[in-house]
Specification:
The protein is of the alpha/beta class and 363 residues long. The chain is built from 14 helices and twelve strands. Helix 1 runs parallel beside helix 8 and helix 4 runs antiparallel to helix 5. The longest helix is centred in the middle third of the chain and has 32 residues. It is flat, with a radius of gyration of 23 Å. About 4% of the residues have low confidence.
Length: 363
């Protein structure tokens, strides 16, 4: 799963990306489009449950879940018409599964704002409009072909025409497609279009060091906007997070304590991005490793097994499941089994966030 980091130029996207992935390159120049090709990085998803499991199992290693991040160059007004190399940048967004939009919520005369003033809600609306305009273009281009195929009796093409019509109607009301619920067959029929305003979105309010919890006017405005659209906001001071990312663990903990935080804000960003994608974790636990595996919310036990290896899904027999709470209460998997707390689940079982699993299979 990939998350694309987007935003207007000079809002702190690359600073955030570098901090999230702990990569420190040369400081970007203070002008638009300093990121031309999308940088890619992998970020772990912090999960305190891994440490709790490992403290009992005592494995040789612990492996967290991971997300792939793509840092996409700044988008400007008119991007859907090619402004600022917009078409190239928008094509990168089509390929990701969710959008993380960094919004500038700080004032700094030394950092140029592309619009001449700091107005985070206007910035959010600018990018939203560019994504919707680009989606309209994609749908308009796709419609003639779909109509021709539909006339020849192609059932999927008929679904596609119907879905395109609904999407166009929705977009004409200046509403992003993520707020449109299509029947599953119609949604599947247009899934290849990579419609950008349909992608789930998470807003990161890049705040001043004196507003780490995002309570000031600018961040509050973004939060209010996000709540009206069903999205979430995470306040982050990208400058501070970049400094924290460069420290070793003792110094990082000391600095966090001095500013009243228990963990870097980037940990919240990673977890919220994970949830925005509709993902959850289950665990496998043994002497060799304790590991978090990523599955979609609603995945069945065979689908969960398939994340480890396709053979596990193909030859799935059953799944043995227990909870972290059971492990902490009984102290070992053996004692969980003896207490009758080890559950046996079949092919219809829906994976739950935090399950600790063993899969039995035969191929």
């Amino acid at each position: 799963m990939e998350v694309g980091i987007v935003g207007l130029p000079n809002v702190g996207k690359s600073t955030l990306f570098n901090a999230l992935t702990s990569t420190q390159g040369a400081q970007a120049a203070n002008y638009p489009f300093c990121t031309i090709e999308p940088n890619e990085g992998i970020v772990s998803v912090p999960d305190e449950r891994l440490g709790r499991i490992a403290s009992i199992i005592k494995p040789q290693k612990v492996v967290p879940a991971f997300l792939k991040l793509v840092d996409i160059a700044g988008i400007v007004r008119g991007a859907s018409e090619g402004q600022g190399l917009g078409n190239k940048f928008l094509s990168h967004i089509r390929e990701v599964d969710a959008i993380l939009q960094v919004v500038r919520c700080f004032a700094d005369d030394d950092v140029i704002h592309v619009s001449g003033k700091v107005d985070p809600v206007a910035d959010v609306e600018t990018i939203e409009m560019e994504l919707m305009l680009a989606d309209i273009q994609s749908l308009e281009n796709a419609l003639p072909k779909a109509e021709r195929s539909a006339k020849s009796g192609d059932k999927e093409a008929k679904l596609r025409v119907t879905a395109i019509g609904k999407c166009m109607q929705h977009l004409s009301q200046d509403q992003p497609l993520r707020k449109l619920q299509l029947p599953e067959p119609e949604e599947k029929a247009i899934s290849s279009y990579g419609l950008m305003s349909a992608k789930p979105i998470l807003y990161v309010a890049n705040v001043d060091e004196d507003d780490l919890h995002g309570q000031a006017e600018l961040a509050s405005a973004v939060r209010q906007y996000a709540e009206s659209t069903g999205a979430h906001v995470v306040p982050v001071c990208a400058k501070l997070e970049a400094e924290l990312a460069e420290l070793d663990e003792p110094d990082r903990s000391e600095m966090l304590e001095s500013i009243g935080l228990t963990e870097p804000a980037l940990a919240t960003v990673a977890r919220d991005a994970y949830r925005t994608l509709g993902l959850q974790s289950y665990f496998t636990a043994g002497e060799k490793e304790v590991r978090a595996w990523t599955v979609s919310v609603g995945a069945t036990a065979p689908q969960g097994a398939g994340v480890i290896h396709t053979d596990f899904e193909r030859g799935f027999i059953r799944c043995e499941v227990y909870s972290l709470e059971d492990l902490e209460a009984h102290g070992s998997e053996k004692e969980i089994r003896n207490a009758g707390k080890l559950r046996t689940e079949g092919k219809s079982y829906v994976m739950q966030d935090g399950d600790v699993c063993h899969f039995l299979f035969n191929v």
